[in-house]
């Protein structure tokens, strides 16, 4: 091998869920919203001629509308290319200690990938036997903390009191609460932003806002931490948010009625689906997200995963310790979930 | 200060050119194309309902069309959110040596920002007194090499033979040739890709393709280096290119006639403008880009910059050693350049 090969960064990349090009499938594998974006987004006009010009590097239209929506100052909002970009940028900005950062053993599978990418030491305290966070595990010296609430891929929401306990016990560290799924259940940590100067809350447009295809995520914190994030962002890429994202993202936030309506529909379908597969001997962890994490009494999850895929129904399977007998099933429309329930019923009967 | 402040990455961010919100200005400060994107881009249909779905993480439609356009295999193409994203990702991927990377003292001002961000040691061999690259300065041990051709902000193109000499003298390092402006003049290093396994060529849609507002850049190299780049990209953000970028970017590449026509117009206007300001005692460095780097016999560049801005004409001024008496003037339409020439004529007379 050439000498330069020694200088190439070696990584074990994150493997995203499959994005089948075949559109004739029921796609319940990457937690997308079954409903499209708001009519306001459809009515938004992207003037193609202006695409010759750079977008606003401060993304101020989007930042302002998000600040207003959440009742914070624009200096408290950072936007990026999906919450993955926001989280990666946060790791790069905030986690520069020799001490290990902490996140759960079972959680979003990108955290350890970012830690490896940026050579950040990390430890992964185990969730308890019910997949609950043990807050006391985070009461020790660390270089930072990150966890999702609700957690992924379990869907379990931790009470905001526990979140606050972790934040308040770690005043020397930055604590990132990844709220990708909070709109589907639970209380946000946003109410704690004014009280703690070490808290960063991260959100995404990809789930509750039906805009995974546009790539928009954001962080809310105090102006000091948001400035630190922006400084790093401007040291990486001045113009991350393209014009269509800025225009359509802004319109989306303005339609709160549609947003709440679709979120309610997804939540209602989730509860309906959980009840529907119970008689088939499935158990779901209590979900506050737009997916359920389900296990069957007898049939290995991997087998169901493969059989569903053969029937053109995509769900997510993680071949990882402790969760390798679970399926993560995104919540689609009632009709899609009925079809999946029907498939499961037949599959179990014929097996 | 709280203890966490020690762990925050401190950076001196890149400062992009101003993006005035006032549209009633002549904007010649960030090297955008005065002509809008192709009619094919205008005709492209972005189905808003599909925005609920993640984009193709491999960006294969765009990768395939670029591969075909450049006569390479799709495994040789990497795409990102503007060439800044592609370059930043390349620094992170390829420049992991303890030896310093090398780039010119006068060049794109993001290179040292990325080196600082990722803690990469670097040295900056000086351009000669005519702002030409001294290739022999790059014939020494290093951790990688990066330079633009044509260079920015000078606009000077180095003969492809010199580029090849640098690549061939550095078989143990990755050499990145940043060809943001190559469509406006000079021979691309793409012809050397098959010959050298240490060469990466970076391109952008922001200048010649009239699409700064969409944020698309790409790299072409051999499949080994492109895979290394993709591995790091997938470790950072699986879905960087949003659906509008994929759809409209692909359409743009398909309209080669319009592309060549607009590039020719910009080049013709550039030559016309250089001649027009000569009688006003301006000297321009020989430009192969969509901008000129101009200095006046008597009047300090900073004064002209400010006077032009007061007259709602934006050009770029760099308060940096060796170039602080130059203006970087993007090439607009003939009409815009005539207005700027008229302004300069009056300004010099009345001064």
TrEMBL record, chains A, B:
Domain of life, per lineage: Bacteria
Sequence ranges assigned to domain Aminotransferase class I/classII large in this UniProt record: 23-342
Alphabetical list of SUPFAM superfamilies matching this protein: PLP-dependent transferases (SSF53383)
Biological process according to GO: L-histidine biosynthetic process
Pathway(s) annotated for this protein in UniProt: Amino-acid biosynthesis; L-histidine biosynthesis; L-histidine from 5-phospho-alpha-D-ribose 1-diphosphate: step 7/9
Catalytic activity of the protein: L-histidinol phosphate + 2-oxoglutarate = 3-(imidazol-4-yl)-2-oxopropyl phosphate + L-glutamate
GO molecular function terms attached to this record: histidinol-phosphate transaminase activity; pyridoxal phosphate binding
InterPro entries: Aminotrans_II_pyridoxalP_BS, Aminotransferase_I/II_large, HisP_aminotrans, PyrdxlP-dep_Trfase, PyrdxlP-dep_Trfase_major, PyrdxlP-dep_Trfase_small
EC annotation from Swiss-Prot or TrEMBL: 2.6.1.9
N6-(pyridoxal phosphate)lysine found at: 207
Assigned keywords, A-Z: Amino-acid biosynthesis, Aminotransferase, Histidine biosynthesis, Pyridoxal phosphate, Transferase
PROSITE patterns: AA_TRANSFER_CLASS_2 (PS00599)
Cofactor(s) listed in the protein's UniProt record: pyridoxal 5'-phosphate
Quaternary context: Homodimer.
Family recorded in the similarity comment: Belongs to the class-II pyridoxal-phosphate-dependent aminotransferase family. Histidinol-phosphate aminotransferase subfamily.
PANTHER family in the cross-refs: HISTIDINOL-PHOSPHATE AMINOTRANSFERASE, HISTIDINOL-PHOSPHATE AMINOTRANSFERASE-RELATED
Protein name, entry field: Histidinol-phosphate aminotransferase
Naturally occurring in which organism (per UniProt): Coprococcus eutactus
Encoding gene (name): hisC
């Amino acid at each position: 091998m050439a000498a330069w090969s020694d200088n190439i960064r070696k990584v074990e990349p994150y493997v995203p869920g499959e994005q089948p090009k075949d559109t004739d499938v029921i796609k319940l594998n990457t937690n997308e919203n079954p409903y499209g974006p708001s009519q306001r987004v459809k009515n938004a006009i992207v003037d193609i001629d202006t695409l010759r010009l750079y977008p606003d590097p401060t993304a101020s239209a989007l930042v302002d509308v998000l600040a207003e929506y959440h009742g914070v100052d624009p200096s408290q909002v950072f936007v990026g290319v999906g919450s993955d970009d926001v989280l990666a940028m946060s790791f790069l900005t905030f986690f520069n200690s020799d001490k290990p950062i902490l996140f759960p053993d079972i959680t979003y599978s990108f955290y350890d990938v970012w830690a490896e990418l940026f050579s950040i030491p990390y430890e992964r305290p185990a969730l308890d036997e019910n997949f609950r966070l043990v807050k006391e595990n985070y009461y020790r010296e660390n270089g930072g903390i990150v966890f999702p609430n609700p957690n992924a891929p379990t869907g379990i929401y931790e009470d905001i009191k526990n979140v606050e306990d972790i934040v308040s016990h770690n005043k020397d560290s930055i604590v990132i609460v990844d709220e990708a799924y909070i709109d589907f259940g639970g209380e946000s940590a946003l109410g704690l932003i004014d009280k703690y100067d070490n808290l960063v809350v991260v959100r995404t447009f990809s789930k509750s806002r039906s805009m995974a295809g546009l790539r928009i995520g954001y962080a809310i914190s105090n102006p000091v931490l948001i400035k630190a994030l922006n400084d790093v962002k401007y040291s990486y890429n001045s113009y991350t948010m393209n014009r269509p994202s800025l225009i359509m993202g802004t319109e989306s936030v303005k339609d709160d009625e549609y947003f709440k309506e679709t979120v309610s529909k997804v939540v209602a379908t989730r509860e309906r689906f959980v009840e529907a597969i119970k008689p088939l001997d499935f158990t779901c962890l209590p979900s506050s997200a737009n997916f359920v994490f389900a296990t069957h009494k007898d049939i290995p999850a991997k087998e169901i995963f493969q059989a569903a895929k053969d029937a053109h129904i995509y769900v997510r399977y993680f071949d990882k310790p402790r969760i390798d007998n679970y399926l993560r099933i995104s919540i689609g429309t009632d009709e899609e979930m009925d079809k999946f329930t029907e498939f499961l019923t037949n599959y179990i009967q014929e097996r």
